[in-house]
Amino acid sequence: MRTTKKQRDLLIGTVGNAKVYQRSEIIFSQGNAADSIFYVIEGMIRLSVISKNGKEGIVGLLGEGDFFGEGSIAGQALRVETATAMTYSQLLRIGRAAMTLALHQKQRVCDLFISCLVARNIRIEEDLIDLLFNSSEKRLARVLLLLCPLVSHGMPKTAIHNVSQGILAEMVGTTRSRVNVFMNRFRSSGFINYGKDGIQVHSSLRSVLLTEG
User: Fold this and answer.
1) Spatial distance between the Cα atoms of 173 and 84, rounded to a whole number of angstroms
2) If DSSP codes are grouped into helix, strand and coil, which group holds residue 137?
3) pTM score, two decimals?
4) The dihedral of CA 188, 212, 172, 34: what is its sign?
5) In sequence order, which residues have a C-beta less than 8 Å from that of residue 159 and are 6 or more positions away?
6) pLDDT (tens digit, 9 = 90+) per residue, 176-205?
7) In the chain, helix, strand, coil percent, each to 5?
8) Which domains occur in the chain, in start order?
9) Which of 23, 18, 42, 28 minimizes the C-alpha distance to 71?
């Protein structure tokens, strides 16, 4: 969910200070004390979990305007996932007590928080429907479009950085080799391009979502 500068300034001025995280820097780890909530001012954050046998699974990629770690204000004592900065990121870290107080006393903060969580819940429901009913190729197209929210008017916007085909495969629920086949197909069709700054996604990729099968 993209937010306005006014909304971001409201949060920063009300409940905390911004902090910068470099690429690959861990924000918090699975099992850490859940004592704060985070708001993404800019950048991309990966949420992942590790099973008892050491297998890692990606449970979400978040961007500008997203909250995460909200379990800390709902009675969660320990983090159930690890949050890692995938790109240079600027985050607002809000202590549990400060966020709870703001939600009770600041109506605009409460409204923003609720709208962000509702938007994220809708996205999760759409992800589940996508996983249940759409092909791997369509799911990949949707993931790329979600990761590149600035696509408009047929113009490529480089907005996908440091997302490997392995990560895409985990998000789509398929193998890396199949993702590679689909990405090559998208590129040959002119839906995407690879540039020095990342993957450029064209709005024409939406046509994949409209095809039968």
Assistant:
1) 21
2) helix
3) 0.75
4) positive
5) 147, 148, 149, 150, 151, 198, 201
6) 999 999 999 999 999 998 877 788 888 888
7) 45, 25, 30
8) 5-129 (2.60.120.10), 135-210 (1.10.10.10)
9) 28
